[in-house]
Design brief:
Strand content: 25-35%
Structural class: alpha+beta
Shape: elongated
Radius of gyration: 23 Å
Number of strands: 4
Strand order of the largest sheet: 2-1-3-4
Number of helices: 3
Distance between the termini: 66 Å
Order of helices and strands: HEEEEHH
Helix content: 25-40%
């Protein structure tokens, strides 16, 4: 007797198809997910510009199936933000220099 797979199987008709798909993903993960290091150059107001006009900001492109997401970890000197931000005083009281 065939069992219907969970909704997460996204259209696979039976448990055998679901398990075959799962085995394929586990045995060949590079076909279904990936991590790529990338970088863009940004100016002071975080507008993307050419390399000679801004600072390089590295980031990671994470792909899981058809889904792509981007991740960045940035450490930005607070003293460069102080005079340009309406929330600078609040940030300084929380994080200090």
């Amino acid at each position: 007797m065939e069992q219907k797979p969970a909704k997460s199987s996204r259209g696979l008709e039976n448990i055998s198809n679901y398990l075959e798909q799962l085995i394929d993903i586990i045995s060949q993960p590079a076909n279904y997910c990936g991590l790529t290091n990338k970088s863009d150059c940004l100016e002071r107001h975080n507008v993307k510009v050419t390399a000679e006009l801004g600072n390089e900001v590295p980031y990671a492109e994470i792909r899981i199936g058809e889904l792509k997401r981007y991740g960045v970890i940035v450490k930005y000197p607070l003293n460069e933000v102080k005079n340009q931000s309406r929330i600078a005083n609040k940030m300084e009281s929380i994080y200090g220099n």
